[in-house]
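Re: duplicated header lines in exported structure tokens

Our pipeline writes sequence and tokens for each protein into one text file. With two proteins the header for the second block appears twice in some exports. Here is an export where it did not happen, for reference. First protein block:
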Amino acid sequence: MTSSKPIRNVVFDMGGVLMNFDGPYFASLFTQTPEDARLLNDALFGTTMWSLLDSGTISHETMRRYAEHHLPERLHASLHECILHWPEHSAPIEATNDLAIRLHNEGYGIYLLSNASTRIMEQLGHAPALPHLDGYLVSAMERLMKPDPAVYQLLCTRYDLDPAECLFVDDNLDNCIGAEVAGMRSFHFTREPGHDAEALEACVRELS
């Protein structure tokens, strides 16, 4: 049953919502040909090991060694540079950052819940909304990942939030469903008409 309580808090995902995350693009910055970029992306960002890194199950060193094993030696230097510097090339999604700041200034609680590694601040540090966050929770630091309802419940417990008063925003539909199982309402953000920052703001206003 949908809650009738007004929304008082908006919980944002990071990659794809507040910050761009584009593995093929990042890989292309550290390689010379499209084929090499594909190889690098597949070995680093495009593998299930990346999710293990975000879950805190493996270390960055293990991730590096795994990717090296799946790349020709001539691309090892490119891999190392990409691992070190890709967060610098993750650009803010301005519309959602602007909205988060505006909502914070209006008195809404603004939180972040991200499946990300322990290096999250190297990426999130570029987000204009960062100083306006009232709290955040990162999967690798908690050993819990979306869409497990437990991770949303942990966020609410840590910051004394009522899930029924929270709107969760994510570009992954499964993560939105996980939030709803945990008692939140959700908005599937895709940057397409009807699922963009303008529609998100309209949703917040409607539910408040």
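Second protein block, exported in the same file:
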Amino acid sequence: MLDTVINETGTDPQWAVLWLHGLGADGHDFAPIVPELLRPHWPAIRFVFPHAPVQPITINNGLPMRAWYDIVSMDFRSRADAAGVDASVQLLDALIEQQVAAGIPAERILLAGFSQGGAVILSAMLRRTRPLAGVIALSTYLPDPENAVARRAPEGIQPPVFMAHGTQDPVIPQAIGAHSAQTLKDLGIVVEWHSYPMAHQVCSEELQALGDWLDRRFQAA
């Protein structure tokens, strides 16, 4: 199992958010946003921020860093190492099952990810056969969308998706993220898309919109 940073917002949490960081970061990267995101009337939530394994990254001259998969090309059609994505999806599935074993049903688990982490959760979502509460994909994209769609679990129940991107993102151009959002919509998945005048980052307006979206998820349960 992956090492994780855990933040519980109350006793006996009945909800969990599994949040995957971006390339070169670690599980501490998004832990500080929890207080900004929380609202007083929300149920107790267990936020789980795993650390990705350390591995060499091809486009960074093989420099080892925390990553969910190798980046082998600048071309987004072949950018992500498919075997690495598959391995991280399996690690994520194990984290989900760990929370289920701890008493939080899959229907009350949300997946969140930024950049590389978002690519993994979108890939994982399409392969799942058991429902989730929702998926949060920030400044990210769906790797190899044709293959991802082909591998979609036909009996799967796809959760609602929150996607947000920066118009000035120099790492993953917004058009790439928007194309991924449209791919999901074409599959009948409910996607709420947000765009902000920012780079490869998260802004306060985005967190406000995400909080509103999460509020609806909790109210619907």
